[in-house]
């Protein structure tokens, strides 16, 4: 018998989830088992989430992406959120985080667990405010933990808790001057609770209880980065680094109880700091999978932050991040709609795939090879089938019909591929001739 995927791996038990991950990643089952035992690969798999697919998260695997969604006070439309879920699953997102902060959150969460095959994550700190519906100062340490337990019982596969910002880190933070202060929603809530009550962060103080809950339901911990930088100038400061050290210590404690761990990372960060940040995390947290929120590499592109995040995400994953949190064009501006979600997913998938090629993930280049062959043969239908977004690719060609089927409206009969193919077949190149 085993309690968690890590517990099974340490007993050399190959679970069904490990078999599925090994097949998907083209890896040996024994290697998957070994990496899980070492904490370098996780399979978020709450035993109550029975309809989920099994995905592995680790730097040596295909880079996975997460889609954030959920209701808010200003946008309380459960049907729209479920439509976002359906699109996310159809477009290949491996994970979905329900960040709902208003409404009947438990009903929505349970619906996700019952119907959604993606890995499911939540941030119980948000839900505690909704669930208890009382002033922040009146929520007790036990009540924070009770909501965490409720999410585990509901079937959530991984949960983000901001336990790295303890009273010591909070005091150090206050002594520094940041431009954007704390931009993590969960981190700011926990900071405020500690300031108001004078108590220690309950997820830090009662971390052993958190681990017991995780072990009972096989929940993967996502150790949140409350002090992630919210602008380039705040990146890499003492608060961020001190919190990372604390997360490294908590990782060791979790592993001692056979609990799987993901480490969350920045945030806003200039390009030239990304590699060092990834290396530092791998060192301090002993190779635990790194989950990055971007990184967003410039502060001046609101409306286009799916692009700024894709640039940073590709670099981060190439240097060792395992899990990319998508960013939509609505980042910093509004709750994303369905179209924003699509744009964010595609940008994140491009970043993930580019990184997989860079780090030599098995099979990553095969997709590009097939596309290159189709493009070389001017096989439009095959190109559409292989495209990351087939509908968009097909629509572009349809809206600008070429004179000839073996060209497009960019080059026409000057198409280099068309003419080289004709030359090498011994045919005449008819660029200026009329058909």
TrEMBL record:
GO biological process, one term: thiamine biosynthetic process
Cofactor note: Binds 1 [4Fe-4S] cluster per subunit. The cluster is coordinated with 3 cysteines and an exchangeable S-adenosyl-L-methionine.
Catalytic activity: 5-amino-1-(5-phospho-beta-D-ribosyl)imidazole + S-adenosyl-L-methionine = 4-amino-2-methyl-5-(phosphooxymethyl)pyrimidine + CO + 5'-deoxyadenosine + formate + L-methionine + 3 H(+)
Signal sequence coordinates: none
Primary enzyme class: lyase
Positions annotated to bind [4Fe-4S] cluster: 408, 411, 415
Pathway membership, UniProt: Cofactor biosynthesis; thiamine diphosphate biosynthesis
GO cellular-component term (any): cytosol
Residues that hold substrate according to the record: 68, 97, 126, 162, 184-186, 225-228, 264, 291
E.C. numbers: 4.1.99.17
Coiled coil (UniProt feature): none
Gene3D superfamilies reported in the protein's UniProt record: 6.10.250.620, Radical SAM ThiC family, central domain (3.20.20.540)
Keyword ATP-binding: no
Keywords: 4Fe-4S, Iron, Iron-sulfur, Lyase, Metal-binding, S-adenosyl-L-methionine, Thiamine biosynthesis, Zinc
Binding-site positions, Zn(2+): 268, 332
Cited InterPro entries: ThiC (IPR037509), ThiC/Bza_core_dom (IPR038521), ThiC/BzaA/B (IPR002817)
GO molecular function: 4 iron, 4 sulfur cluster binding; phosphomethylpyrimidine synthase activity; zinc ion binding
Cofactor(s) named in the record: [4Fe-4S] cluster
Entries under Pfam families matching the protein: ThiC_Rad_SAM
Function: Catalyzes the synthesis of the hydroxymethylpyrimidine phosphate (HMP-P) moiety of thiamine from aminoimidazole ribotide (AIR) in a radical S-adenosyl-L-methionine (SAM)-dependent reaction.
Family of this protein: Belongs to the ThiC family.
Protein name as it appears in the record: Phosphomethylpyrimidine synthase
Name of the gene encoding the protein in the UniProt record: thiC
């Amino acid at each position: 018998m085993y309690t968690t995927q890590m517990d099974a791996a340490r007993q050399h038990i190959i679970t069904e989830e490990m078999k599925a991950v090994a097949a998907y990643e083209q890896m040996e089952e024994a290697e998957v088992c070994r990496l899980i035992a070492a904490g370098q690969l996780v399979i978020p798999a709450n035993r109550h989430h029975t309809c989920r697919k099994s995905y592995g998260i680790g730097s040596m695997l295909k880079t996975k992406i997460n889609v954030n969604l959920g209701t808010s006070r200003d946008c309380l439309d459960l049907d729209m959120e479920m439509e976002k879920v359906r699109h996310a699953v159809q477009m290949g997102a491996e994970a979905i985080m329900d960040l709902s902060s208003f409404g009947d959150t438990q009903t929505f969460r349970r619906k996700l667990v019952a119907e959604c095959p993606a890995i499911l994550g939540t941030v119980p700190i948000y839900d505690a405010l909704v669930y208890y519906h009382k002033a922040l100062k009146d929520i007790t340490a036990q009540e924070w933990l009770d909501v965490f337990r409720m999410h585990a019982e509901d079937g959530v596969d991984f949960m983000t808790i901001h336990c790295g910002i303890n009273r010591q880190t909070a005091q150090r933070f206050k002594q520094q001057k940041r431009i954007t202060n704390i931009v993590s929603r969960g981190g700011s809530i926990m900071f405020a609770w500690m300031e108001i009550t004078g108590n220690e962060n309950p997820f830090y103080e009662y971390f052993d209880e958190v681990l017991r809950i995780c072990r009972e339901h096989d929940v993967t911990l996502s150790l949140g980065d409350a002090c992630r930088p919210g602008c380039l100038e705040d990146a890499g400061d003492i608060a961020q680094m001190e919190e990372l050290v604390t997360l490294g210590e908590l990782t060791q404690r979790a592993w001692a109880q056979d609990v799987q761990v993901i480490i969350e990372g920045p945030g806003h960060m200039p390009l030239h700091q990304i590699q060092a940040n990834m290396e530092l995390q791998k060192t301090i947290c002993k190779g635990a999978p790194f989950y990055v929120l971007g990184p967003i590499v410039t502060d001046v592109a609101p409306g286009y932050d799916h692009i700024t995040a894709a640039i940073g995400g590709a670099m981060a994953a190439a240097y060792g991040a395992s899990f990319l949190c998508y960013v939509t064009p609505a980042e910093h501006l509004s709750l994303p709609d369905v179209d924003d979600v699509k744009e964010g997913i595609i940008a994140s998938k491009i970043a993930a795939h580019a990184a997989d090629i860079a780090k030599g993930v098995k099979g990553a280049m095969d997709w590009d090879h097939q596309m290159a062959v189709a493009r070389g043969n001017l096989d439009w239908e095959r190109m559409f089938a292989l495209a990351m977004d087939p509908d968009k690719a097909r629509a572009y060609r349809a809206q600008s019909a070429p004179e000839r089927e073996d060209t497009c409206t960019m080059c026409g009969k000057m198409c280099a591929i068309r003419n080289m193919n004709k030359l090498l077949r011994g045919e005449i190149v008819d660029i200026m001739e009329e058909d």
